[in-house]
Structure formats: C-alpha cells, structure tokens
Design brief:
The chain has 206 residues and is an alpha+beta fold. It has one domain (18-120, 162-203): Electron Transport, Fmn-binding Protein, Chain A (Pnp Oxidase, Chain A, Roll), CATH 2.30.110.10. The chain is 27% helix and 34% strand. It has 5 helices and 9 strands. The protein has helices at 18-31, 74-82, 109-118, 121-129, 139-152, and strands at 38-44, 50-56, 59-61, 64-70, 84-91, 96-106, 164-178, 186-192, 199-203. Strands 1, 2, 3, 4, 5, 6, 7, 8 and 9 form a 9-stranded antiparallel sheet that branches. α4 (121-129) crosses α5. The protein is elongated and about 55 Å long. This is Pyridoxine/pyridoxamine 5'-phosphate oxidase. Keywords: Flavoprotein, FMN, Oxidoreductase, Pyridoxine biosynthesis. Its cofactor is FMN.
Length: 206
C-alpha cells in the first residue's frame, strides 16, 4: 500500500474520485433535509474580486460537473470571461465537504435542450422573463414579464432562450473532507495530471 493510500472507511481505494463523489452524494440525498445537490460556486470578476453563490448540480460524470444558468447573469459573464471556477459541497448532516476546482466548458446544445425540456413549465417561462443579476424596478415588473411570456408560449413547447445553457466544470482537483474529533479531520485530495497518469491521491494535514 502506497504512502498516500486511503485507509479511512469513508474513502475508496479507487484511483479516481467520481465513484466516491457519487457515494457521498447518495448518502447526502438520504440525510439532508433539502437540496443535497446544492453547492457554493465561486467565480472572479474583471477586477479579481471573488463572488460566491449557491447553485444546484444537475449532473456529473467523468467529463465533469454540470450546472445551468443565464449566461447574461453575473456568474455567467464571470465564468465566460475567466473560464475557471470552484465548487464546494457541504453536507452538515454528514459532517462532510467536497471542494472542486477546475476549468469550465459550455455544454452542448443537445445537453442544454434536453435538460431545459425536463424543467417545470413555470421554470422555463422564468428563464425568459428574468433578466438575471440586473436591477429590477419592482416585483410587479417581474410578474408582468412572466405574464407576457406565459401568454406568448401559452400553447406548445417553450424554446430554450439563446442566453440560457449549462456549464461543465472539468476538475483539476477534488478534495474530500470528513469531520473527526478534536479537529483531526480526514482530508484527501485527488489531483488530475493532464496526461496518461490520471488521478493521484494525496492525504492532507487537517
């Protein structure tokens, strides 16, 4: 067994982190009262000042971690400009945390169309009505926009707005953290080398 092999019962011996992430997400789905797929998403604006907000993970596989948003929103503009972001999942009920850092790519139109079509009709209308992150003169103005688009798309399918799609974070590192007594936590980071070596595991001091 190598020096950095994982010995805790909470961690897998696999050389890639996605199975472990899936296991932890499934555990969170059983214990978290709301939105086990919620994560904090960190981006950076044009001045270098960071922004962070909560979004929902909508899918993951070996290509990365996917979420959807309005590309004209603040986070959309910051991601398109920087091409990088970071995520943090924190499950209080499990005393677990996962941090992910990496580069961003836009999902395919087919992926975005498929997910958009799966959303409730009201959410699809909202994607048209909300000028996300921009000043709103009143709640009435938003409700008026919703009513206008509801009337416009009263019958048939609602097309996906051209400014609404998804991002995929392609991780260069994924860190798993589990609370332990006396703050002697388990902390293991998977690092991805951009070559045939794939993932390496490193156990970190807490």
């Amino acid at each position: 067994m190598s020096e950095n092999a994982l010995t805790s019962g909470d961690f897998t011996e696999e050389n890639e982190p996605y199975a472990l992430f899936g296991s932890w997400l499934a555990d969170a789905g059983k214990s978290e009262p709301n939105d086990a797929n919620a994560l904090s998403l960190a981006t950076v604006d044009e001045t270098g000042l960071p922004n962070v907000r909560m979004v929902l993970l909508k899918g993951f596989d070996e290509r990365g971690f996917v979420f959807y948003t309005n590309f004209e929103s603040r986070k959309g503009q910051e991601i398109l400009s920087a091409g990088k972001a970071a995520m943090c999942f924190h499950w209080k009920s499990l005393r677990r945390q996962i941090r992910i850092r990496g580069e961003i790519e836009v999902v395919s139109d087919a992926e975005a169309d498929e997910y958009y079509a799966s959303r409730p009709r009201g959410s699809r209308i909202g994607a048209w009505a909300s000028k996300q992150s921009r000043p709103l003169e009143s709640r009435f103005a938003l409700e008026k926009a919703v009513a206008e688009y509801t009337a416009r798309y009263a019958i048939g399918e609602i097309p996906r707005p051209p400014h609404w799609s998804g991002f995929r974070l392609k991780p260069v590192s994924i860190e798993f953290w589990h609370d332990r007594p006396f703050r002697l936590h388990d902390r293991v980071e998977f690092r991805h080398a951009d070559d045939a070596r794939g993932w390496t595991k490193v156990r970190m001091y807490p």
